[in-house]
Amino acid sequence: MRHPLGWMLTGVVGIGLVSGVTATGPGPVPVLGAVAALGVYWAVMRKLVRRAVPEVYGPGVAREALRGGAVGLVFVLVSVLVVAVFGGYSFSWADNGIAGVVTSVVMVQIGTAVTEELMFRGLAFQALEKLWGSSVAVAGTALFFGGSHLLNPGATLWSGLAIAVEAGVLLGAAFLWRRSIWFVVGLHFAWNTTETLLGIPVSGHTIEGVLSTQPSGPPLLTGGVFGLEASAVPVVGLALAVPMFVLARRRGAPVTRRQTQR
User: Fold this and answer.
1) What's the whole-model pTM score?
2) Which of 31, 87, 98, 115 maximizes the CB count within 10 A of its CB?
3) Distance between CA atoms of 153 and 140, rounded to whole angstroms?
4) CB–CB of 61/182 below 8 Å?
5) What is the pLDDT of residues 110-156, one digit of tens each?
């Protein structure tokens, strides 16, 4: 159980069970699920890996979350704007009751962002990095992340590949750079929340937003019924990951395969 793959699987199963029970629950249930998932992660790292968890409980938690949120917000808004400029999206008010919609969306997306990032960047990334280095960790978690969305409504091989590239690599680069779960949680949360409030499906899931979005044009531009993640526009935004990799290298963050074998 103390082998990287052992504690990775233990943690993923534990957090996955928590997510399965709480992700779509009413009111604050998804947030309570996020808290429980943090408890599972702490227990795995402290009891099996036997190390502290500065990536979760270190200083500057709020600052890192806000920084990641700003990156995610800008990334999604620019992507949506590009699609809209080319005639892919038109918007109208959904008239769903702003306060209730925003509260519900925020609760759900907090749960989603925290549990998914603990599983993919917290557990899987660090386990793969310990075994085979940072490059394998980024590539492996990106593929896992894209593959985990293949069962979503409207998913295709293209949408899975697109998510692996645009989100999986970006989030991996973000974690490699900041070494903070909260930075990637903030990025992930802002991405999903912004899309939902704009009325755009998030990876095939349609939830009531403040606005309603009507896509028109080829699915390669709009993402079709799957949403923005299946559009080619955010895939091009992979360029955002490049400076993150550069900054991570300057900080000495990447771990090479040779270092794992010492």
Assistant:
1) 0.95
2) 115
3) 23
4) yes
5) 999 999 999 999 999 999 999 999 999 999 999 999 999 999 999 99
